[in-house]
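tl;dr need the bound structure. longer version: we got a ligand (pyridoxal-5'-phosphate) that a collaborator sent over and nobodys looked at where it sits. i said id run it. heres the input, straight from their email, havent touched it
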Amino acid sequence: MDQPTIPNSDAARDVAYLMHPYTNARRHEDLGPVVIERGDGVYVYDDQGKKYIEGLAGLWSVAVGFGEERLVNAATEQMRKLPFYHLFAHRSHSPAIQLSERLVSMTPDRLQKTFFTNSGSEANDTVIKIVRFYNNAIGRPEKKKIISRLRGYHGINVASGSLTGLPLNHADFDLPIDGILHVSCPHHYRQALDGESEEDFATRLAAELDERIVQEGPETVAAFIGEPVMGAGGVIVPPATYWQKIQDVCRKHDVLVIADEVITGFGRLGTPFGCDSFDIDPDIMVLSKQLSSSYQPLAAVLFTDEIYQAVADNTNRLGSFGHGYTAGGHPVATAVALENLNIIEERQLVGNAAELGPYMQKALRSFSDHPLVGEVRGTGLIGAVELVANKASKTPFEPKMQVGGFLGERAMEQGLIIRPLLDTIAFCPPLIINRQQIDDMIECFATALDQTAKHVETVT
Ligand SMILES: Cc1ncc(COP(=O)(O)O)c(C=O)c1O
């Protein structure tokens, strides 16, 4: 089986950086769980009654905040009316139809058809299958490889987990599967050459992609997948002109562009979709999380009419489209999603992210001079602070020190839940957050960061 493909030494350094051997670490079973009992707005409460700001919106997902009665009502009404029906064998139901129409009208024009799943991982497995089915349908059985990126996150199933470019999601799971390739992560801070501008870095990454496609044979490469802004890999905003250059390479080789908007969809970056922020014109888009604010499990794959038509014709030839999930497009989940999208629209939460995003980014950047902080990055209402042992050389901390984890625990003591991705601390609050709550979040983080600095002093 193929091992993760390490295309150049920058990428190898990236992998080495992420592949932390957790020797001497505390055992995971000693770390919790913290039992969260209820939520209200941007806050959650544990079983001891302690209140936390949910600085990661759960898992990058609860756009409208916790305890939203309108979503409870939407679910209840739908449960009474039609608690379950499926979308197999020429059946459908009105919440799925309405949601599909709504998504088609909201997303870039070329995306005309929707396929529902229960999770982002299932959605990306579906994408891989649709890409294969499509290329078989149009007589290109060789054109099947999919190119993803190191540090990208696209899910956890055998296929979607292979798209993911994080070593810990591959190690000992015998992933990735054949036919999935990884190119460099567009992280200027860690991957750019000395003195390389963002644009030159983007040009180099596009050239790397071009070379890789040529080396593999363009007739074998079907698609390129990326998150407009990487989330779980460390909140990585691509360098200026990156997406334009990457798309040019894809178009040149007739390679489909897949935008995984599971985190960036529905306003996270201050625009309706990440594609709007970066001028991406995708052939396929993947949505989840803020789609239903994760009140119900739901994801959607949107694709072009051209792909749909080929899939439909092949389905007619074969007699059936042999793919689907029992609960895919579940009526309760789709009804909740419709109401969630109403709330996002009525309360202008995309606008809130556009207005408060720069405020949060500015506040986070106030930590740039802190001795522990290597880089502050982000856009809209998603950001990250990367901790380093040495600012000048960007040297990471020894993994076994678990500095990010230590900070995460101090933040929780302060009443803030954020997410340490190794030593990168991620922020992604609910889209309903206000200025005062951002100030509170930053204050808790500042205290936790200083406590962490003192701790580091004592142990080094
Ligand atoms: C960009 C992206 N794609 C896919 C997924 C997988 O979604 P799920 O956890 O619902 O399977 C995630 C989850 O965090 C994600 O961030």
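gonna send this back to them w/ a short note. The chain is about 40% helix and 15% strand.
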